[in-house]
Design a protein that fits this description.
Elements lengths: L2 H11 L5 E4 L4 H9 L7 H12 L8 E6 L1 H4 L9 H7 L3 E5 L4 E3 L7 E3 L5 H10 L4 E8 L8 H20 L3 E8 L7 H21 L8 E2 L16 H15 L6 E4 L6 H15 L6 E6 L1 H11 L6 H19 L14
Parallel strand pairs: 1-2, 1-10, 2-3, 3-6, 6-7, 7-8, 9-10
Antiparallel strand pairs: 4-5
Helix pairs in contact: 7-8, 8-9, 9-10, 10-11, 10-12, 11-12
């Protein structure tokens, strides 16, 4: 394996204040979001929606890479181009979600482990042949009474490391996503403890399985109080807790950290990323970027609603939210002036 292309791609994905667009929602998830707006839940409508995203004018100014779903990477745009090719033509690196989702972890009541390692080597080779240059695998960690257990953390960390090794073997940059969920009433401090423990086990497994840290990216949660916690903490407290946690947990060899939005509103996801970069950027060994789905797409979906005539206005919404997060990477985002676009 030649590590140089991997390192170059990983660096490209977090260069120039750009970030990732996660457009890899599974078919059930995408259909659920469509249903909320009365959009037909068909393969053709999913293709049309993703065509609207990929053909947004100027998207590459803010977006360096786009994570696709298996269905999407096999489809074509209205112009007849495979989605991976269409992305490459506008300067966006195509990637692919490769896990098969979380399933109950045997003997660990209430905990899950992500599956999809069977046949992964062959699938990665196929995706690379279709033009993918990076991949993503998500592990799900829930905070509850007595959870997460060490066994759950180890099972998910080992799966992430095996996935990452196979990706690099295939010439794909692995996006390693251990997500500590916002669900529940836990405090900010409890989230910090669990996130730090999770990352410690994940990186121990990555090193044990000989993953080149310079040729990967981390996609974690921010350190946040649970959605039901009475104390929701201010932006500066969240920024400080998150940066402290990652300085203690993430090796300097990793080129970048691309946060997931995890159910935050679009404005909060941008505001919190901005606070981290505005205050700490010059002191960090890695880039702090974004890999958002709903926090970039939701306003566009609400505008589009499956209607062709709404595409230009929806694309304006998408480009705007992407640009907000580019500004947040530079520490220049101002939520006070981020008024919703009028359509």
């Amino acid at each position: 394996m030649n590590p140089h292309p991997l390192i170059e791609t990983a660096r490209t994905l977090v260069a120039g204040d750009r970030g990732l667009l996660a457009m890899d929602e599974s078919t059930p998830t995408c259909n659920k979001r469509f249903a909320a707006f009365g959009i037909a839940q068909t393969a053709e409508m999913r293709r049309a929606y993703r065509d609207m995203i990929v053909t947004t004018p100027g998207l590459s100014e803010s977006i360096s890479g786009a994570i696709l779903y298996d269905e999407t990477i096999r489809q074509r745009t209205h112009a007849g181009l495979p989605f991976a090719v269409a992305l490459q033509q506008v300067g966006i690196v195509p990637g692919i979600k490769v896990d098969n989702g979380a399933r109950p972890l045997a003997a660990f009541d209430g905990e899950v482990v992500t599956e999809g390692l069977d046949g992964l080597r062959e699938r990665l080779a196929e995706y690379a042949g279709m033009g993918a240059r990076f991949a993503k695998w998500r592990a799900v960690i829930r905070i509850d009474a007595g959870r997460p257990t060490p066994g759950c953390l180890l099972a998910n960390a080992h799966a992430l490391a095996r996935y990452a090794t196979l990706c690099q073997e295939a010439g794909l940059v692995p996006i390693v996503e251990p997500e500590v969920l916002m669900d529940g009433g836990h405090t900010l401090e409890r989230c910090r403890e669990v996130t730090e423990e999770t990352l410690g086990i994940v990186f121990a497994q990555l090193v044990a399985l000989r993953v080149r840290l310079e040729g990967m990216l981390l996609k974690p949660n921010m350190v946040l109080p649970g959605k039901d916690c009475p104390d929701q903490s201010d932006t500066e407290t969240i920024a400080a807790a998150t940066v402290e946690c990652f300085l203690r947990s993430v090796p300097a060899a990793v080129p970048g950290i691309a946060f997931l939005s995890g159910g935050q509103t679009a404005e909060l996801a941008s505001t919190r990323l901005n606070a981290m970069n505005a205050r700490y950027r010059s002191r960090l060994p890695w880039s702090l970027a974004f890999s958002y789905a709903r926090a970039i797409q939701q306003p566009a979906l609400e505008t589009w609603r499956g209607i062709d005539a709404n595409v230009p206005a929806a694309q304006q919404q998408l480009a705007h939210r992407a640009a907000c997060n580019r500004a947040a990477r530079a520490g220049r985002y101002d939520a006070g002036t981020d008024a919703p676009l009028q359509t």
